[in-house]
Design brief:
Oligomer: single chain
Helix content: 10-25%
Number of strands: 9
């Protein structure tokens, strides 16, 4: 992509490759299905410009025009959405285009994608103003699937104006911190004679391992804190790339194998 261009991802593979290309994570607009269903039969694909649009990439149910091809025709669709609005699939995904940056943008759900805001930054609706398809709403952060547990605050946390503070994903507002994982793991370890505590301890150790290996393999980093939804640390400038206590995620995973026989645990 060229400077100023954007891309909407639905799959983990797309997210990883986009972040590796040093794009900034903006936010979650909507939730799409991972597999085709009777409710969501429309595939979303990444299309890329072959010439004349400076590397423009777009998430769409169909090519946005001449000169665009599916970026990876052999890969599975990014996700699946519904052709019409229903009670479950109520969030329209709109396609926009900027003549200034030669950039398509697919979005729907956040304030940044409202008509007045998109007009303000020079985007116009395409597809005759009709939605590409309909997805599940992500306006309520509590409805987003929980891949990693134990963020610093609850998803239901609100400020005095009734705005979600979890959604900010800055420092203590919604981030995941390895010391919290370690303290809770230690407490569960001391109660592992209880089957429920033993099961939760193993689940927490698995999440800690995935958090550590994902960021290390993507960026070669051991972060101070990570995104409470995506589990990546490189999305925020207040998450140091190399911080000693980030390694506690790895220590938890090692301890769970029995390879760290500490009296503290």
């Amino acid at each position: 992509m060229a400077p100023g261009q954007s891309i909407t991802c639905a799959s983990e593979a797309c997210l990883q490759s986009t972040l590796l290309d040093v794009a900034e994570f903006g936010g979650i607009e909507a939730i799409v299905d991972e597999v085709e269903s009777t409710g969501a039969p429309l595939p979303l694909q990444i299309y890329r410009a072959t010439s004349g649009s400076g590397g423009d990439q777009v998430l769409s149910t169909k090519s946005p025009g001449i000169g665009y091809v599916i970026a990876n025709a052999s890969a599975a669709p990014e996700g699946w959405c519904a052709p019409a609005a229903t009670k479950i699939y109520a969030q329209p995904l709109m396609l926009w285009y900027s003549n200034t940056t030669l950039d398509h943008r697919t979005c729907g759900g956040t304030a940044d994608c409202a008509d007045v805001q998109m007009d303000k930054i020079g985007y116009e609706k395409v597809n005759n103003g009709a939605p590409l398809c309909f997805a599940k709403s992500a306006v309520d952060v509590g409805s987003i699937p929980c891949r990693y547990g134990m963020p610093s605050i609850a998803r239901s946390d609100l400020d005095g104006a009734g705005k979600s503070t979890f959604w900010e994903q800055t420092y203590w507002r919604g981030r995941i911190w390895a010391p919290q994982y370690f303290l809770v793991y230690s407490g569960l370890k001391n109660q592992e004679h209880l089957p429920s505590a033993r099961a939760k301890k193993a689940q927490l150790a698995d999440q800690a391992k995935r958090l550590f290996t994902q960021q290390l393999e993507l960026f070669g980093q051991v972060n101070e804190n990570t995104n409470g939804i995506l589990g990546v640390g490189s999305d925020n400038e207040r998450a140091d790339a190399y911080y000693h206590w980030g390694a506690l995620h790895a220590l938890i995973a090692i301890a769970e194998t029995g390879a760290y026989p500490s009296t503290m645990l």
